[in-house]
């Protein structure tokens, strides 16, 4: 499979960014190829396009499936498995938020809750619990907010993000009209 220079550049970039997004370089490249290719791809096509071993592709596809980032498809008359990404980039973003939350926030929230249930044995532990409570409350708000975002349509998410600076200005006006005590 031949990849255009534009696509190749994006694939390389996604590979470099993969580690920053919680994926390795190969997974980032594989996902970029799948996202940027209109037709579903099979493992041989991915291996050929990225010049990586078939076994690496198989392991990568399993990992991408575990992240719920790709969909398995079958093409009538072809025994191979084909893979595609959601066409809606907002769906991809929502999936990444959910999967990262499951892997990162949820275990940390559990640990924070366990810490809050313990009886402090001294002043230092009381201070630790106070800080943990603040972290817990913040992470809980992020979790509730991300749950809300998960159920919004792509159109509403887009509109919300376009409000951007406008929300900040509204909050500034609110603070002037209703100063907090």
Automatic annotation (TrEMBL):
Designated name of the protein = HTH-type transcriptional regulator
The protein's UniProt keywords, in alphabetical order, are: DNA-binding, Transcription, Transcription regulation
Organism source for this protein? Thalassotalea agarivorans (Thalassomonas agarivorans)
Q: Which InterPro entries match?
A: ArsR-like_HTH, HTH-GbsR_regulator, HTH_MarR-typ, MJ1563, WH-like_DNA-bd_sf, WH_DNA-bd_sf
**What family is this protein classified in?**
Belongs to the GbsR family.
* UniProt keyword Transcription present: yes
Family annotation (Pfam families): MarR_2
Name the domain of life: Bacteria
- Name the CDD domains on file: HTH_ARSR (cd00090)
What region holds the HTH marR-type domain? 21-80
- Kindly list the GO molecular function terms attached to this UniProt entry: DNA binding; DNA-binding transcription factor activity
């Amino acid at each position: 499979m031949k990849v255009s220079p534009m696509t190749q550049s994006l694939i390389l970039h996604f590979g470099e960014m993969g580690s920053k997004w919680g994926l390795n370089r190969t997974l980032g490249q594989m996902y970029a190829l799948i996202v940027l290719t209109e037709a579903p791809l099979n493992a041989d096509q991915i291996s050929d396009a990225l010049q990586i071993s078939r076994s690496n592709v198989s392991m990568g596809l399993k990992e991408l499936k575990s992240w719920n980032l790709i969909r398995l498809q079958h093409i009538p008359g072809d025994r191979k498995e084909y893979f595609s990404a959601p066409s809606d980039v907002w769906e991809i973003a929502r999936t990444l938020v959910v999967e990262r939350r499951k892997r990162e926030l949820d275990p940390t929230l559990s640990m924070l809750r366990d810490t809050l249930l313990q009886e402090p044995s001294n002043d230092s532990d009381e201070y630790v619990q106070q800080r943990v409570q603040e972290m817990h409350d913040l992470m809980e708000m992020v979790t509730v907010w991300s749950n809300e975002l998960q159920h919004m349509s792509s159109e509403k998410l887009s509109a919300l993000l376009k409000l951007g600076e406008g929300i900040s200005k509204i909050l500034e006006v609110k603070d002037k009209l209703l100063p907090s005590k």
